[in-house]
Write a structure and sequence with these properties.
alpha/beta, seven-stranded mixed β-sheet, globular
Length: 235
């Protein structure tokens, strides 16, 4: 079964060398696609030096746009499944197997920072916001997730085919992607994983921008309540 890691990366030249080295050492049979999302540092050069496939966007589109490009390339390469992996060092390659095992009974699997016994911590304000999102997602989908904003996810090919053209491109894409997959009738699952703190670089999110997108996604979630999933077409 062909498996690919898709890494959206914006100015991650500091952490990316270690990330790619760890992936190569832990999962040498997995293909790696790095999508350089309009970086102004050496992200692309680092990816190529490590032997990864590097796709470059001329401007910064955000994670959603970068993932669309990565998923399209993965599909064209004939992969059976792929997983989203951060370029900042938060995701642990040793946990990828846990994520992929979840695909045995699901089409899309979310790796949760909070479902196990890990020590991952967030601020009080962020924790409250994430709690509200969890409640709204549960009300909308009928399924509980402890980490709706996790970017550590795995997908079977049918989900990749959907996301290659319709993956949400606004910030908080991870929440909307759950809703999109649910509405198309895909099976969703969550597994506990261990994550680390960012190993380099700086987050691109700013408080005002985060507040705007939080309000926007609340509207999206509220509007989606009560909508029934669309059955997945038989292969």
């Amino acid at each position: 079964m062909r498996t690919t890691a898709v890494i959206p990366a914006f100015n991650e030249a500091e952490a990316l060398p270690t990330v790619l080295a760890e992936l190569a050492a832990t999962l040498p049979d997995h293909e790696v696609i790095v999508v350089d999302d309009g970086s102004t540092d050496g992200t692309a050069a680092v990816a190529r030096a490590a032997g990864a496939t590097c796709l470059r966007l001329p401007v910064n589109l955000g994670i959603g746009g970068a993932l669309r490009l990565g998923f399209r390339h993965a599909l064209a390469s004939g992969v059976d499944r792929a997983y989203q992996f951060d370029g900042d060092g938060q995701h642990d390659p040793s946990q990828v197997g846990v994520l992929l095992d979840g695909l045995d009974g699901a089409d899309m699997v979310v790796g949760s920072r909070f479902a196990g016994n890990g020590a991952y911590r967030v601020s009080r304000s962020r924790g409250l916001a994430m709690g509200l999102l969890r409640w709204l997602v549960r009300r909308t989908t009928g399924q509980g997730f402890s980490d709706t904003s996790s970017g550590f996810r795995a997908f079977r090919r049918p989900v990749l085919e959907l996301f290659a053209t319709e993956y949400p491109v606004e910030y908080m894409d991870s929440v909307e992607a759950l809703l999109l997959a649910h509405r198309r009738g895909f099976r969703l699952a969550e597994v506990p994983v261990t994550m680390r703190e960012r190993q380099g670089g700086t987050p691109s999110t700013r408080n005002l921008r985060l507040a705007y997108h939080f309000v926007r996604v609340l509207i999206v979630l509220t509007a989606g309540m009560g909508r029934r999933p669309r059955p997945v077409a038989a292969a």
